[in-house]
């Protein structure tokens, strides 16, 4: 694996921090459950964690549980495109297509940039920057952005 193209997962850093600071393993599971259920967008909203731990995690890792922030949204009757930015500044596009037959599909990015270099594509013109982390890929699908559409 080309480590120059692979960012380290934020969730792995959080898990390591919790273990190194002597927190029980179930604390990490509580965080993941809150993130997956979209019940919390910040560490402070994960009320299953002690207030001191919520404050510590916010200070060390930033307040948001989500590694992506939507910076541009385009919508019409058949399409939703969201441009996210990662904590490292990488831009990632995710697209949801709505079909007349009543079903939807989602195109999820696995890389920041693209190595193909197609002349008609803005992402290709940037070139391959890096592979996304597992939490960045999952966050595209699970981000609260989609619950508001």
TrEMBL record:
Keywords, in A-Z order: 4Fe-4S, Iron, Iron-sulfur, Metal-binding, Methyltransferase, Transferase
Which BP terms in the Gene Ontology apply to this protein? rRNA base methylation; tRNA methylation
Q: Which GO terms describe its molecular function?
A: 4 iron, 4 sulfur cluster binding; methyltransferase activity
InterPro entries in the cross-refs: Aldolase_TIM, Methyltransferase_A
* Source species, domain of life: Bacteria
- Does this UniProt record's set of keywords contain Transferase? yes
Task: Please verify whether the record's keywords include Methyltransferase.
Answer: yes
Requisite cofactors: [4Fe-4S] cluster
Please report the name of this protein according to its UniProt entry.
Adenine C2-methylase RlmN of 23S rRNA A2503 and tRNA A37
Q: Tell me what organism the protein belongs to.
A: Leifsonia shinshuensis
